[in-house]
Write a structure and sequence with these properties.
The chain contains 2 helices and 4 strands. The protein is an alpha+beta fold. The chain has a 4-stranded mixed β-sheet with strand order 1-2-4-3, covered by helices on one side. It is globular, with a radius of gyration of 14 Å. The protein starts with 13 loop residues before the first strand and ends in a 5-residue tail after the last strand. 14% of the residues are buried.
């Protein structure tokens, strides 16, 4: 990942992600966390995967700071959830 998208050293990095319905893989979370972004904003397609995604981000040193539910597909049972993570004090 680092060889494809070099880290910006001039500004704090913010990562926006919209992974597939299954969520972000553990490997992807670990690679992004190694870059030490200032914030990570992740869309979750459905609420079932949200607890697991939160656990993985916490495991790599990020805390959930905001959750926003979005009904982007009215009339369907699907709900999008936007999660914002920031590094814990120990990881800054």
């Amino acid at each position: 990942f680092a060889h494809v998208l070099p880290r910006c050293r001039k500004h704090d990095e913010v990562v926006l992600s919209d992974p597939p319905r299954s969520g972000m893989t553990i490997e992807a979370i670990e690679i992004i966390a190694q870059r030490q972004p200032f914030k990570v904003v992740q869309a979750c397609c459905g609420i079932d995967g949200v607890p697991g995604q939160i656990r993985e981000w916490m495991r790599v040193g990020y805390k959930l700071t905001k959750t926003v539910p979005l009904d982007m597909f009215c009339g369907t049972p699907h709900l999008e959830v936007i999660l914002r993570f920031e590094p814990t004090a120990e990881n800054r």
